[in-house]
Amino acid sequence: MTSVEETVKELASQTRDEFYHYLSIPTVSAQKTGIPETVEAVKAMLEKRGADVRVLDDLGGNPVIYASFVSSKSDKTLLFYNHYDVQPPEPFDEWLSEPFVPTLRDDILYCRGVADNKGNLMTRLVAIDYLLMRDGELPCNVKFLIEGEEEIGSPHLEPYLEKYADLWQADGCIWEFGGKQEDESFVIDCGLKGLIYMELNVSTASIDAHSSLAALFDNAAWRLVQALASMKSVDNRILIEGFYDKVVAPTEEEIKRTLDIVVDQEGFNRNFGLTRPFIEDGRNPANGLALTFSPTLTVNGLLSGYINQGSKTVLPKAAMAKIECRLVLGQTPADIEQLVRKHLHKHGFDDIELKVLAAQSPYRCPMDSAFVKLVEASANDVYQPESKVLIRPTNAGTGPMDLFGKYLNGMSIATSGTGWAKSQAHAPNESMRMSDYYQGIRHMIRLMDTMDDMEG
């Protein structure tokens, strides 16, 4: 092994207790747990390394952490975006170990948040440890924006970015996630889909009724499922009028880059236990294009009537559904909300109440920007020849990337993370391979070392 690899592993070992403590805090924003303790832990980790740290909490929501390292070696500045909150750990009975007890099995580290996103923050910090140990200061200026509400849609981030935009100006931003796909290719994303998350409620009576009255009474559950069924065809075409009208078609270059992304149906079948074929009938080019460029409409949950053990013959008085749309360039949450409302009205479902719970717009930066090229080159130095490095225009996931573009002068953004095909982020047994952790640290070292080479 090279000395860099050896030193990275040694530093990772030295910081293991710090990392495990960070992972052990149940920082679940959806359940409002662990926030103050995690903010203190992150602040301490950054200050330990000599950062100027500010905890911003004057605009509502969970605190946003700003940190800065100033270098005398360069006028280039790299921004890291991360979040310290994690998803709820439920269902508990599907975990093979306690969700907030870091557990190493076969060189794979299991814990809620290890892949999304606490492990990725640690790669940045251990890379900084290496560079400070080697040179006494960093080869470029480094800033952090670390928020605590990403897993609930970043509802309070915008006012912080608007008020404190000057703090986070930089020459490029490394986003919080990323990693390897099924064939071990390392994927760098330049954008994210948007999202609108909605709750639908309908009530047809003040109390549940005996089911024998179904010949007379309407049924809240049927009202809701009929409304949902009117929105999407059996072949998965979204039927909301105008839904696709403003979609921006991808360029030839974006399509070409997307065709390099492997969508392995058999791999997905193994990892998720799928019982139905892919919507695109397993055609890999179509699957990749759909994942990257197609908007979606998904039912996240349904609740109505009696759902416990055994039978209870009732007519439900109320029904609720949570649904989401993933949005692509050209679509906005506000437009989609109005289209859904018009659809419900047109089809006679005015009695269904709609509430928007979260909303984010899509964002994509140019794949040929100087910063993206630098991230790609530095990744090639670390991941090749074992892993092919691929640039993808848009990830199928969602985050507040559009706000960075809006308030930070259309900043170029690229992902780099320690995920793998079986990370199971948001699911039980979330994991990170230690080999990916070490490579992620080395990638951040290489990127900071080459920031001064960026054109412009």
CATH topology of the largest domain: Aminopeptidase
Q: For the record, what is the CATH homologous superfamily label of the largest domain?
A: Zn peptidases
| Low-pLDDT stretches | none
CATH class of the largest domain: Alpha Beta
Strand order of the largest sheet: 1-2-6-3-7-19
Main beta sheet: 6 strands, mixed
Helix content percent band: 25-40%
- CATH structural architecture of the largest domain: 3-Layer(aba) Sandwich
> What gap, in angstroms, lies between the N and C termini?
35 Å
How many domains would you count in the coordinates?
Answer: 2
Q: What is the CA-based Rg, rounded?
A: 23 Å
Structure class: alpha/beta
Q: How confident overall, as mean pLDDT?
A: 95
By DSSP, the count of extended strands is: 20
Overall morphology: globular
β-strand percent reads: 15-25%
Q: Helical region count?
A: 13
